[in-house]
Write a structure and sequence with these properties.
With about 450 residues, the chain is α+β, with helices and mostly antiparallel strands. The chain has eleven helices and seven strands. The strands form two sheets. A five-stranded mixed beta sheet has the order 2-4-5-7-6, covered by helices on one side. Strands 1-3 form a two-stranded antiparallel ribbon. A hairpin with a 3-residue loop joins strand 6 and strand 7. It starts with a helix and ends with a strand. The N terminus is likely disordered.
Length: about 450
């Protein structure tokens, strides 16, 4: 090969090496950070594979650019480091894949034995006919050809294991990771083939695009690793949420069944007993059991609010409000409160029925619960205002009101403005979550002793 033909190859190869070093450094620190955050041991192995890439590229750069490492003992040492780092990158990727598949750590003594084998092979490959001037071609075959052949076979093996193993998720990340490994393996085997052909008397050059190809494949590998991690964590989170939902619903059902039995027994006891003290105690038991049932019902409602997928449909607001009022008609004091609402056939909106009913039911229910029914005109006013790009729902009452210092906290989970409050502290939190799910916002203006106005603003779907 002529010198004029080598210069472009060396030039582009050097640029690609610099870029690979920078990319490798970023990925090394990124994966160590991920390993610490997610507590995944396979991420640490993958992280150190990028450190091996940095060492491999840096040592290759020092050898090819000449200078202190161009000959003698320094070259022997640097060549050994280059070979060991190249094979270590492949080995660490295989190790991380093994840990990920088995979900258990690799034994340290096995890893030390494996790494010692790589170091021993690297040193022997460099020392092979090192002092024989006539054996330059043989040394190149062993140091470069065998190195790339072993690395290529290792990358191919890792790629095939990842792409065919049924234990791994079949997501985009896995495909990108496995295909990039297979591509990198084929590229390294191709490089080894060129070295072997040249040793046998051929005159093949390394393509100019080879360095860029390595860079692209390593970049795809990194993106695949990160994507696979995110998909894997998402899968585990989805499984955990599913198990939590099953536990929540089954536990709630198991709790509500004995609660219903206790309420039935207390009702029977109150019918049969005539002693005033006993009736008083049974009333207390009934109140506590109802409070427990209310807590469980709110938890279930919260679970449905957060887990349910949005289902947009055309909703008749008049019918929705009528259902809410019907559900609350037996609440204490409800019959004494006047509802101010003017039905309008045009009150149609596109939204999620379940979320909207949760919002309206809790706001109107709270207005009933915290009212002054003994005043002259206790009322609850509901208004629907439609604008060009949004819908506004207002629920106003002239009840007890909320102190100003509590108004920013009422949408917090389990917050109750008063120790005398009979609620669970979940109602308005659930409302806030439902409003957020509909991409809306909720505000409150209130004055103690005069009442409150809750304003829900929702974007038009």
């Amino acid at each position: 090969m002529r010198l004029s033909d080598e210069l472009p190859e060396i030039y582009y190869r050097t640029i690609a090496i610099y870029l690979e070093i920078v990319v490798g450094a970023v990925l090394f620190f990124m994966f160590l950070y991920f390993a610490k955050i997610y507590q995944r041991k396979f991420l640490r192995a993958w992280g150190y594979s990028w450190l091996a890439l940095i060492i491999f590229m840096s040592s290759t750069l020092l050898i090819t650019t000449g200078g202190y490492f161009s000959n003698g003992l320094p070259r022997v040492i640097m060549s050994s480091v280059s070979i060991a780092a190249c094979l270590s990158q492949m080995a660490l990727i295989l190790l991380g894949t093994y840990i990920h598949r088995r979900e258990q750590n690799f034994r340290t003594r096995h890893f030390i034995f494996f790494l010692s084998g790589i170091l021993a092979f690297s040193l022997l490959a460099v020392l092979f006919k090192n002092e024989v001037e006539e054996a330059a071609a043989q040394r190149y075959l062993v140091r470069v050809g065998v190195k790339y052949l072993l690395a290529g076979v290792g990358f191919l093996w890792a790629g095939l294991v990842i792409s065919t193993n049924p234990q791994f998720t079949r997501g985009l990340g896995q495909k990108m990771f496995s295909y990039s490994l297979i591509g990198l393996g084929l590229a390294d085997v191709y490089y080894a083939g060129i070295v072997a052909i040249n040793y046998l008397g051929g005159d093949l050059g390394i393509p100019i695009f080879y360095g860029l190809l390595e860079l692209i494949l390593n970049a795809i590998m990194a993106i695949g690793m990160v994507t696979w991690l995110l998909e894997d964590e998402r899968g585990k989170l989805k499984k955990a949420n599913s198990q939590l939902d099953s536990f929540l619903y089954s536990t709630s059902h198991d709790l509500r069944a004995p609660i219903a039995s206790i309420l039935g027994l207390t009702n029977l006891a109150k019918i049969e007993l005539r002693e005033e003290t006993a009736l008083k105690y049974f009333d207390m038991v009934e109140n506590r059991v109802k409070k427990m049932d209310l807590v469980i019902a709110d938890i279930l409602q919260f679970a449905r609010t957060t887990k349910a997928e949005l289902k947009l449909e055309q909703i008749d607001f008049n019918k929705l409000l009528q259902e809410v009022i019907s559900d609350l008609r037996f609440n204490e004091g409800a019959t004494a409160i006047h509802l101010r609402y003017t039905p309008n056939p045009s009150f149609q909106l596109l939204s999620d029925y379940t979320q909207l009913k949760i919002i309206l039911g809790n706001l109107v229910g709270n207005a009933v619960k915290y009212h002054h029914v003994e005043q002259a005109d206790p009322f609850i006013a509901v208004r629907l205002i439609t604008k060009k790009e949004e819908i506004i729902i207002e629920v106003e009452d002239n009840g007890t009101g909320i102190a100003k210092q509590y108004q920013e906290k009422i949408f917090t989970m389990f917050f109750r403005a008063s120790t005398k409050s009979e609620g669970t502290g979940l109602g308005l939190y659930i409302v806030g979550e439902a409003v957020a799910k509909l991409r809306g916002r909720i505000t409150v203006t209130s004055e103690v002793g005069k009442g409150s106005v809750f304003t829900v603003t929702l974007p038009k779907a």
